[in-house]
Amino acid sequence: MLKILFITILIITLSYLVLITVLSFFQEKMIFFPSRNMVGTPSDLGLDFENINFTSQDGTSLNGWFVPVENAKYTVLFCHGNAGNISHRLDTISLFNKLPLNFFIFDYRTYGKSTGVISEKGLYEDVTAAWRYLTETRKIAPEKIIIIGRSVGGAIAAHAAAEHSPGGLVLESAFTSLPEIAQKNIPWLPGTWMIKYKFSTIDSLVKVKCPVLIIASCDDSIIPFSFGQELFAKAPEPKTFVQLTGDHDDCYFLCRAKYVSALTKFLKTCF
Q1: What is the pTM assigned to this prediction?
Q2: 154: helix, coil or strand?
Q3: Residue 171 region, left (φ>0) first, then alpha (ψ -120 to 50), else beta?
């Protein structure tokens, strides 16, 4: 009986270790879901835009769209989530165009028309390249730029805001760190040490020196609402927290009026 029990435990342990090993080698496939297929452009919405090609520090070619608004005083640098590409954010582009704000959205390496290989360091270099494009090429004053990050883009945006000096930072449906969200969603995984990608939003957030807006949904099935609350608790002043309803990708549009109102009030805080 003891021998059978020992063999059973051994098989379960070995199977678990094999599973962990396999998952560790395929982390990119579980975290990032880039698409090369462009499903549209801002012109489909009747919006003028500039197709921008620029280069990251390591030579990676990046692609983005600059959507201008006549007489806009401020510009948004938008860091999207882990799936699709910039062409899947047309609704978001339209929303910000009506605020009205200049809007610069770009694809990370391997997404859309951008080249390169995914890495955490590489994605941070990509947002830095986007920042430099706005501040150095377009000569936009740093204090007139709002960096917005959604989901994993929140970690990338927070990193950029900590490194530079934007007028404000907006984190939407963001997590505290990738290992923590992995541990929360898959509790049987040793996420805190197995995942090589940290994307520690909270570590960057505490270094930020600009106004911060945290937006989270109590109905988010991917990023627990508590993560937004924890980020808000750690964020420096001045800071604002806004609670939406609706799932991870839908809450901004289901609560459009509340979302737009929060952004409008936040802009006044920043400028």
Answers
A1: 0.89
A2: helix
A3: beta
Residue 196 backbone phi and psi in degrees, to 5: -80, -20
162 and 156 in contact (C-beta within 8 Å)? no
Q: Which of 58, 248, 249, 250 is catalytic?
A: 248
At 49-79, the pLDDT tens digits run 999 999 999 999 999 999 999 989 999 999 9
Question: Among this protein's residues, is 159 annotated catalytic?
Answer: no
CATH superfamily membership of 44-270: Alpha/Beta hydrolase fold, catalytic domain (3.40.50.1820)
Q: Is 80 annotated as catalytic?
A: no
Report how far apart the first and last C-alpha atoms of the chain are (Å, whole number). Answer: 73
Q: Which residues are bridge partners to 106 per DSSP? A: 64
Burial 116-144 (b: 16+ CB within 10 A, else e): bebebebbbbbbbbbbbbbbeebebeeeb
Q: Are strands 75-79 and 83-84 parallel, antiparallel or unpaired?
A: unpaired
* Beta sheet of 239-244, edge-to-edge order: 50-55, 61-67, 102-107, 75-79, 145-150, 168-172, 212-217, 239-244
Q: Reply yes or no on whether 48 is catalytic.
A: no
